[in-house]
Batch of 3 targets.
Target 1
Amino acid sequence: MGTADVIITVYKPDNRLIQLLRRLIGQTVMPGRIILMVTQKAPDATAERIRGWIEKELTDRPVKGSGSVRLIFDAVTEEEFDHGGTRHRGALHSDADYLIYMTQDAVPADNHLIERLLAPFADSKTGAAYARQIVFPGADAMERYTHLFNYPAESSVKTREDLDRLGIKAYFCSDVCAAYRHSAYDEAGGFVRHTIFNEDMLMAAAMLDAGYSICYQARARVYHSHQYTALQQFKRNFDLGVSHRQYREVFERVRTESEGVRLVADTAKYLIRSGNGLLIPKLILHSACKYFGYLLGKNYDRLPDRAVKACSMCRHYWK
């Protein structure tokens, strides 16, 4: 199967990071290294505080086999942080066959995550595989259906022959929990070094262009969900639009907006069928915020700098 290292971006973590680490070091297939890329406000002791907190938590309640996993901490300032560049810097700490990227709030659903995530790489043409995301308890019906829409129960494999059929979905891959064949990652040049968003989809596009396939592995599951406000949805989709504008040579090759329309229509039908029709106004508001945020983001270069910073979720990107 080969060796695997896990690279996690960390910023103001909570106890979900501890849950994530505990479940990682209890896997049926163990990572060799867990590399934590810690973002801090300035060159200060934040990374060391987080290191101490993590090591205390793991020592107080040890997990069998955890001693064989090496924890590596690397700190970047907020000004240095970049969605692609910071993750690529994490890859420089690894000589493993596979790079597994996760976010600090993605919690493995069981101890088979790594085993199942790496299974598709038995096919030498697999360049990347990403996990199914399931909602945390308490998520509302709208959030549950969005996850079902984007992360169905059936696995699938995408190649460049699927671009016309799938559109933007052919590029879909999520670094919330995704594994990359290290050699294919290097062949593609690694993640783009300066991007506000979508480093995972840009890598998937590069791998498809190189003849590799992207696997959605539904049997590898992590808990991950957010209850974004309408304003947060606007800002998140503004950044999405910025990314599509900046890398239009990639994203204009495929249709990008029809999937969003289908998601809204299917979600509305689901809410009505499931007796959650009172969430329809919320769906309309959030969908409008997503759409107008995306449109503004695609035209960010026509906006004043102050407006761009106000609309963006990643304000540090513009410094």
Note: The chain has 13 helices and nine strands.
Target 2
Amino acid sequence: MGALTAPKLGYNTGYWGSGPPVGALEAIKEAERLGFTSVWTAEAYGSDALSPLAWWGAHTKTIRLGTAIMQMAARTPATTAMAAMTMDHLCDGRFILGLGASGPQVVEGWYGQPYSKPLARTREYIQIVRDVVRRDAPIDFHGEFYEMPRSNGTGLGKPLKSTIHPLRKEIPIFLGAEGPKNVALAAEICDGWLPLFFSPKENAFYQNCLDEGFAKSGDATKRDRFEVACNLMIIPGDDAEKCADFVRPFLALYAGGMGARGVNFHFEVFARMGYEDVALRVQELYLAGKKQEAAACIPLAMVEDVALVGPPAKIRDELARWRETCLTTFLLGGPASLLGTYAEMLAS
């Protein structure tokens, strides 16, 4: 895992803006041609992750198709399992089910679902999804958050088994996670981890979290096949500061604008990196509507901890520390015309 082998490359289409991202299909085709091993879609409270993945994935043959991430609050566990089995059949076993709990603003504000105890809720959710996909028996699950069949309904519900047979009885499940307990949970019950903001200097911290999860899983071989697929922003250019300006608004949005004051998991990631004072200032400005000022106060060092910016030679030098981490796949974005350049940088 991680530094034992050279990280693979994946392509991340990211969130849609006001409409579909221009050139996404062209970039996905180019990524497959270049040997990228996976392509990923996202959702929050705009486009969904599954429809674009199915549409674009129909134009591919070998690349794995993943969701980064499907919001658990958006679908019941059974609906998610149905979608996963359907997608897996349609792409001939190339589907990766990336799931995440999101945060209370989206879960309660957009999906109208409760957010309490996200770790315990995630554990139940994934267990049901796995049980549905395995199709070993009708689903008869009675947990704290999910109950199939319901006990307080009409009384007519009965345990059911999926009418379709899965192409694979074990569809890979990756978990989007940032907090230490959630990262450990990913290693315990999932097949992969999808970090959003990862810094090589935090590798030991995250490796400890993963080790805790591996130990709880009871599977001695899990560590060897576990995957960690992480977004890696690459902005090449002569001036590192100017390149960092392309990243600063993104970091400001997550550190300052996502979640609420005191309940922002992205904020906590940057605080653990040693940027709590900066993150507090960013949050203060962003929540006051001063987005440009919030982005401007992010130092170059904070950008360089989570992204590669500056001259190509500098990027190649800094790549060494990324290769020595637990990451197994670098997820890249950008237009088709730049993917070859990025791939060459990462391969050298």
Note: The first strand starts at residue 8 and ends at 12.
Target 3
Amino acid sequence: MSPRLHRPRRRTVGLTLLAVVAVLAGAWTWYTQPQPLLPEAGASLASTADVTFTQVDGRLEWGPADGAYDTGLIVYPGGKVPPAAYGPLAQEIAGDGHLVVIVPMPFNLAVFGIGAADGVIAAHPEVQTWAMAGHSLGGSMAAQYAADHRDVIRGLAFWASYSATDMHDAPIRVLSIYGSLDAGAPRMSGPEARASVPADAVYQEIPGGNHEQMGWYTGQPNDPPATIPRAEQQHAVAAATIRLLAGLTVP
């Protein structure tokens, strides 16, 4: 058979492969494209009279202005959500006397940065008691880290999230807080989620809250509109997390 008869077929296969690669590249770009931030997020990246803000190696850190703290909270962002979206929450929690560190994730996906807490803990030997918090995917990955470091992490706050690993026997105090309108609320508070965490875990539903209002960003897909102001939902999350931190004991 003449080689000329093979060329169209090879050309067709090559064009098909290029098309597949282009589609996959486009899908990956869309999937990892970060959600747009609201102005409040950027405004939180600053020191105030009560809270000092610093940025170290990409980490966003808030602490009480007087430098007096012995408890630290490491926050894992939700999928596709930039760390700054949780800045106002961090500011409020730090104002109660805690160090709060939000870590960036590769491609804005915590599944690629489960061990990110290692660097935070190493950088702050002054902290006596560590806890973690995470929104959505970030919460599940924070749970994975906490389960693997139960001798270090004393508390864990799920912000519209749940554990993807069995940590029911871990000596860790757990908070699960979520909006009543969050489409994933039944999964966050259902039997499977409860069986994966210690029996004394605290569950708190925010009436009228949704998924997106756990941070200051927009564009959350398939998220029902909240019926309460974002600031109200944020304050409920901060207050519940502060209560969790206040109840932790020094290891």
Note: Residues 61 and 101 are 4 Å apart (CA to CA).
